[in-house]
Amino acid sequence: MDETGLIGRDAELLAVEALLDTAADCVALFIDGEAGIGKSTVWGLGVAAALRRGWRVLTTRGSETETGLSFAGLTDLFDLPLDEVGADLRPPQRDALELALLRQSPGPTPLGQREVCVASLALLRRLVADGPVLLALDDVQWVDHATIDAVAFALRRLATAPVRVLAARRIGSAVAPTATEDRADLIRSALTDRVAVLELGAMDAPSIGRLLEDRVGVRLAGKELAQLVEHTNGNPFWALEIGSALGRHGGLGDPPVPESLSALVAARLAELSPDVREALLVCAALSAPPITLATAALVDIADDPIQTLDAAMTADVLHLTDARLRPAHPLLGSIALETLPPGARQRLHRRLAAIVTDPEQHARLLAACAGDEPDPDVAAALEAGATAARSRGAVNAAAQLAEQAASMTPTSAAADRARRLIAAGDLLFAGGNAPRAHRCAENALAESPTPSLRCQAGLLLATIECWADGSRGWMSHIDRAEQALRDAGDDIAMQARAHVVIADLTSAGAVAAEFHARRALELLAERRDADPATETHATLMLQVARLDMGDGLDDELLGRAAAAEARAPQVPLADRTETYRACWLKNVDDLDGSRAAVRVTIELANNEGNEGVLSNLFLNVAFIEMWAGRYPAAIAAADEAIRVGEEVDILPETAYYVRGQLAAYTGDFEWVRKHLPARLTLAIDAEVPRGIAHCRAAIGASELLEGDTAAAVDNLRNAYTSLLELGVHEPSRRLRLESDYAQALITIGALDEAAALSTELHTFGPRSKAPTTRGIALRIDGLVAAGRGDLDRAIALLEDAAQIHERSPIPLERGRTHMALGVVLRRRRIKSRAAIALREALDYFADLGANPFIDLARAELSTLDGAPRDAILTAAEQRVAELVAHGLSNKEIAARLFVSVRTIESQLAATYRKVGVSSRAALVRLITPE
Known about the structure:
Layout: H1 10-19, E1 28-33, H2 39-52, E2 56-61, H3 72-85, H4 91-100, H5 113-128, E3 133-138, H6 145-156, E4 163-170, H7 183-190, E5 195-199, H8 205-216, H9 222-232, H10 236-249, H11 261-270, H12 274-285, H13 291-297, H14 305-314, E6 318-321, E7 324-327, H15 330-338, H16 342-353, H17 359-369, H18 376-391, H19 395-407, H20 414-430, H21 434-447, H22 451-469, H23 474-487, H24 492-505, H25 510-524, H26 532-548, H27 555-567, H28 577-584, H29 591-608, H30 611-628, H31 631-648, H32 654-666, H33 669-685, H34 689-706, H35 709-725, H36 738-747, H37 751-763, H38 771-787, H39 791-805, H40 811-827, H41 831-848, H42 851-865, H43 875-885, H44 890-897, H45 901-915, H46 920-927
Parallel strand pairs: 1-4, 1-5, 2-3, 3-4
Antiparallel strand pairs: 6-7
Helix pairs in contact: 1-2, 3-4, 3-5, 4-5, 5-6, 6-7, 8-10, 10-11, 11-15, 12-14, 12-15, 16-17, 17-18, 18-19, 19-20, 20-21, 20-22, 21-22, 22-23, 22-24, 23-24, 24-25, 24-26, 25-26, 26-27, 28-29, 29-30, 30-31, 30-32, 31-32, 32-33, 32-34, 33-34, 34-35, 35-36, 36-37, 36-38, 37-38, 38-39, 38-40, ...
């Protein structure tokens, strides 16, 4: 025995001590073992060790009967700390915990589970500021899911903080051989590989002997001790129970020990007086009730309830801790309930259900005493319990209760059953369980007796299927939503909801989305009691459709969305009008405004612990900084968007496409080849039209700058055409592919196609007047004119483009226009002005770090400066040779240099003579390094 009084567990105590070393890598220790093996004892000594070291220790003990009670564990963990430091939290966070812990009454707006998670993180951060914290969870397999979700959420974000987890977990047991649930897995996944597992095995005979002598005054040796250890499998609780029986009855008898631990505990319980046994049953079934509730439960059972509770504590079957009564060991409570005859157990649960006031506990007790047959009263109680759990932010617990409510609803009450199935599906979907949500919605649709209910079920099913499938099979999703619209009949509110869902789901294009969003708003305008959430959603869908179509941002429309949102229940950060506006400002060339607004939103997301929205926000930062010409910052943001998105499994694929464009513009073609073909395959497999187009646009940009113009044209044409078919005219909503596409078309001599692209940019809508868009359109006009031989008109157009681009916030486009102007001026033999324009272009590209463009500008300048004195080839011949080495055809080279194909042929013939080769392939080998 060591100084702690623990026998035979020296190695286990060392593992616990190691956990409390804040310099160690291990941040969680799971003590695993069967029932009675000593997990709670080791766990308790770990708690004591942490307290001796001055740690803040937050404890909870899971109970089999409170597994489904929302935030029961969180109440144990945070009740006292919230009193002490709650005033230091932000009001929304403090209020969320007050509500989750049932210290406040629910308001009209249900609390979100994420809000509770964020508040839990805030509280732990505040506690850690004062010193290290130990989260100690005994019987973690029975701690409620809502608590575990909150703890795991916080731990994932406290990776470097002095927070440790000590958890005892029951695994395979002869008493209750149930599989360990996934509570521990949630915590372990939050801490990745920084978790240690300590498996408690059997105690040896000498340790069992010392334990019996020390704890119950029984001394065994030799054969008797060996028999005891063999029959108990070295389980100390079992051995102590036998030792206690020996003390009461004397002698091992024959057989020497009971056949099972369950039988032994049942025999001990049979020796208790009826009143004491009832007290144990009440406290086990009510999950650690306060004395007042336990007393009320015993009023009609025991003559003196208080005396009965005292007798139970004297008999060591109940313990009083933190003003709550618990079985002295979990096995006592669980076996007491298991060995109760079914009828008696039902009567117990029914009697307790009548005295509890919490709707969720009332529902669970009623469900426990109900049979297999549907019961309308039990179904109603379960529905009320689900509503109560949802109001506290326990979405998963609410979903479980809602499913039970539906299953307990008689088939004769078809409308009630369908309504409860829809509620269960909605909750399951919100909790991330899409397959079960789909089953509920599907059953609700099949069973709904009214069109209104079929409409609700159909919309839910369409939303779930779209989320699960992406754009694959989008026509079937829209067909389902349109059927829901027909089922809405004369119900204006449901019609509006259906139109909004269709607008959101539609992949048919901006025109269809605009129609449905506008129709939803028209319907909502007819009702004074219009749902503000539906109105907000419809308004934002209308705005995004109009943005795609080239109408820009409408401040009046955004104001309407914000006003409706202010009347709606709490809106998630990702769906707020200000979040949309922050991201959309970049699409109308307000890069500075968008940058500032997105930064504010990222700060909000971090404060709220909302990782789900961070990936998309970093994607928007990547867009902003790419267009602003801050390529290192843009690359960092795109990489962060990918990292965060993959970590939380919410990755906007566009992050890869923007990263690909950045790789192309900085000359990192290997990154594009490594990542984007696989992403294109994924987009094609998922049938995501925009994703396919955006990926092809990024690949096309890389191919163009690497010299594979023909492949670039194919990809860029495919992307452009696909996006036009979707009604997307706004260049910023199609990765601004127009510059690359036009350059590729002009390089291969497809001047008419380039001119048509320019016409579309000039005429698509109000946004065609924006400096960036108008400047690009004029540049294309100028290059087309040059390709057709009208150099004077080309120069005038390019000078206009350069002047307009001075008002654009996108420096790459200014550089491209100056380079185009320089090339045409050189061709017009106005060399001094050509040199100025090309040097300005080179300065822009150098500031950006746009390496492929730097090379192009330098090559153009070299043709003006003339060949070096010791060069064999002229500057023009050298330039043609370099383009041949890049794989361009004579026609492509002629188009790029704005000369005739015959000129290129004559220059190549002279080059062959000068360098002593007779073929194109030989020239490439000569000038291409090994």
